[in-house]
Each structure stands twice: as C-alpha cells, then as structure tokens.
Amino acid sequence: SAVRMQGWPSRRGAAGRPLGAPQLATPVGSSPLALHQNLEAQETTLREQMELQRQLSDQLQAQQQQQAELQLVVQGRRHGEPHPGDEAAASKMAALQQLKAKLQTDLREHLRMQHDLLTTLRDLSAPMHTPAASTTA
Predict the structure, then answer these.
(1) What's the rounded mean pLDDT across residues 87-101?
(2) Coil, strand or helix: which one is 42?
(3) Rounded to an integer, what distance in angstroms lies between the CA atom of residue 74 and that of residue 55?
(4) Which of 33, 82, 97, 117 is most buried when burial is the number of CB atoms within 10 A of its CB?
(5) How far apart are the first and last CA of the chain?
(6) What is the mean pLDDT of residues 29-58?
(7) Sequence-distant (≥ 6) Cβ neighbours of residue 77 within 8 angstroms
C-alpha cells in the first residue's frame, strides 16, 4: 500500500470526521438509540484500526526484507572501491534517515493517542454497577 512520503495521508471526510466513521443519526445523548449508535461507531472504528494495523504489518515485513537486501549491498560496497553514484546514494540515505525520524515521531504520537482512546473505552465499558452498589436493598 502506498504511503505519502511527506506525512500521513488525510483520513477525514468533509464533515471533519474520520473516513469510514459512521454518522450518528441523532445527537449524542443518553438515549438507548444514541448509545447503540455510538457503540456501533466504536466497533466500526476499532475494526478499521485492526485492518490498518494488518496493512502496516504487511508493509513492515516488506520493508524488513528490503532493508536486509540493502544491508548486503552496503556491506559489499564498504569493502570495495567507490562507485559512481555513491554521493547520490549517501544523499538518499540521509533523506531516508529524516523520513525515519519523522515516522518514529508520528508513530509514537499515534500510539499514545490510540492507547488513551482504548483506555477511555475500557473505562467507559466497565460495569456501571459496583458490587457495593448492587448489594444495597
């Protein structure tokens, strides 16, 4: 799958919601319908995140193979004479290092955001009644 080199592709629709996120028919409130719709939206979003993570895993495996091949090429050149184009290759390697640093920063931010969202969802989905509250009669 293609990834834009300058950053993450925009995944938002015209209404500012992430693409694929279902639009709620009624405003979020405390009605059973609103709760059901929100839970459906949460499920859809989590399934999309799982699919994106599967795609990322596939892409990372391909990149791992490419890096192993690159490592063999670089090691072979270190022991030989300089080749024409080595300066261009060094420049390209520096650009890749900059992209890697940006990607690492973005991934850390996204992982932190995902962790916070999943923690909040876990807390919200915890049983509403504690054992002490349910024993009062």
Answers:
(1) 90
(2) helix
(3) 28
(4) 117
(5) 58
(6) 90
(7) 83, 86
